[in-house]
Each structure stands twice: as C-alpha cells, then as structure tokens.
Amino acid sequence: MLSKTMAKAISQQITKEFYSGYLYLSMSSYFENQTLPGFATWMRVQAQEESCHAMIFLKYLNEQGHQADLGPIDAPPKEFSSALDVFKKTIEHEKLVTKSIYNLMEIAVGEKDFATQRFLDWFINEQVEEEATANTLIGKLERIKNSSEGLFMLDNELKARVFNLPAPLAARA
Ligand code: MG
Fold first, then answer.
1. Which of 6, 21, 118, 168 is geometrically suited to a Cys-Cys bond with 47, CB 3.0 to 4.6 A?
2. Domain boundaries, the chain
3. Residue 81 contacts by C-beta under 8 Å, 6 or more apart in sequence?
4. What is the mean pLDDT of the chain?
5. Protein residues placing their CB within 5 Å of the ion ligand 1
C-alpha cells in the first residue's frame, strides 16, 4: 500500500536519478574528450548505475500498484575546468540526492509506510558509499595537483571499474 503522496515523490525521484545518469554521462564525455579514458569509463559506469537506481524506483512503484509519472530531465552542465572540478560537482550533486532520499524516508516514516522505509534503506546506505567514493577521489586529485604523471596513474586505476547490476534490481529482474 503506497499513498499518492509517496508515489508522487518516488516519481520525482526517478527523474532525479535519470538526471544523475545524464550528468555523469556528460562528465564521462568531458573526460573522453580530455583523453582521460579511465575517468571516462568510471563515469560511464556511474551513469549506468544511476539509470539502474531509476529503474529500481520505477519497479517498486509498479509493484505497489502505481504508474510512474515521469517528468522532463534537465540538460546537464558540459563545462568543466578539471578532473577535480568534476568530482567537486559530483559530491555536491550526491549530497542533494542524499537529501532527496532522506525526504522520501521522512514521508514514509510520517505515513508509517514500513515497506517503503525498508525499501529506502538500500538507497540510504548507497548514498553513504557514493559520497565516500567521491570524497576519496577528491582527496587523491588534490594530492596529485598538477602532476600529469599522477593523473595518468589515477586514470589507469579508474579504468578497472566494471558495471555490476545493483542488488535490488538483480532481485527484481
Ligand atoms: Mg543514485
């Protein structure tokens, strides 16, 4: 049982997750253009994960007997000044997403909607990881500063990232 208020907020979250994917795709394209293929791969995987987040919310809505009400997706920025700038924008964005998921949880708690609270737990944990990962990369990039050798090594490290289907989507496949 899912209230109309909760369903509407989840529909809005789907749009936000797709925007996240769109943003990271734009960042991936920036990196590709800067000849940083490892960074580009990392961001492309990040974008794929965001589309999966949207799909998890979408499937949950349908499971709960609602139809998604999908809104327009804004165009993401395309001007970035450096890899550090990209990850600073990433952390800013992830903090907004965390707030948005906390807001969903507040609605679920207020409505004593226990199923949605359990459902949201995965996203709350996921956001802790997203923020930690972005912070780690910011730390590394700050240490690297203007060393092209350092950037090259980090690019090689990030190249190793592979896409894994997020657990809640695998469970709903
Ligand atoms: Mg997400």
1. 21
2. 4-163
3. none
4. 96
5. 17, 50, 53
* Res. 146 pLDDT band, cuts 50 70 90: confident
- Ligand 1 midpoint to CA 123 (Å): 8
75: pLDDT confidence band, cut at 50, 70 and 90? Answer: very high
Please state, in angstroms and rounded to a whole number, the distance separating the CA atoms of residues 121 and 101.
10
Cα 173 to ligand 1 centre (Å): 18
Q: 17 CA distance to ligand 1 centroid (A)?
A: 5
**CA dist., res. 155 & res. 160, Å (int):** 9
The pTM of the full predicted model, rounded to 2 decimals, is 0.95
What's the pLDDT score for residue 100?
A: 98
Helices (H), 64-113: 83-110
How far apart are the C-alpha atoms of 125 and 102, rounded to whole Å? 11
Per CATH, domain 4-163 is 1.20.1260.10: yes
Centroid of ligand 1 to alpha carbon of 121 (angstroms)? 13
The pLDDT value recorded for residue 102 is 98
Burial class (CB in 10 A: 0-12, 13-18, 19+), 149: exposed
